[in-house]
C-alpha cells in the first residue's frame, strides 16, 4: 500500500531502509524527545512490526521517500496507540524525519496525506497525536495540520519512567468533522 503527494512517496518498508533509519536513530537531534531504538537488531524488529501492523490493520507508519531521490528520509503514518490511556483506544499519527530534511515542509506534506488516508479510507472519527511538552517543532506541526490541544487531555506516558522528563505528554486531537470543515474553506 502506497500513497503519493506532490513531492513524496509514502510506502511500505524495504530491507534497504534499515541503514537510513539507523542513521536517523543515531542522531541526537532526532531522538531528543523520542524513544531511541537500541541497536540494529531493534531497528529490524521495529521495521518488521510496522510491516505486521500494515498486514493486520491495513495502515501503519510508511517509509517516506522523495519522488526525485531514492531512499528513505524518514517515516509518517497512522498506528494504533499501543498502551492504555484515558483517550484509548485510538489511532495516532506519528512522524520522524532525518534532520537533513527538516524545514522543507516534508513532514507537513506527509502528515496531511496520512490524515486524509485515515479520514477518507479508514473512516476514522478522530486521530490523535502526542509529544513531550517541550517538543515545540512537533507541536507546531500538529497545529499546522489542524490538530487542537486541550491541556485537560495531557497525560503521563505509561512507557516512560516516573523520573523521565519526557514522561508528561501533551495530547492533540483532530475530529473528522473539523478536518472536513477545514477542507471546505
UniProtKB/TrEMBL annotation:
- Keywords of the record: Transferase
Domain (N-acetyltransferase) ranges: 8-169
Q: Which domain of life is it from?
A: Bacteria
What Pfam families does UniProt report for this protein, alphabetically? Acetyltransf_3
UniProt GO MF annotations: acyltransferase activity, transferring groups other than amino-acyl groups
Protein name, per record: N-acetyltransferase
Q: Which organism is it from?
A: Mesorhizobium tamadayense
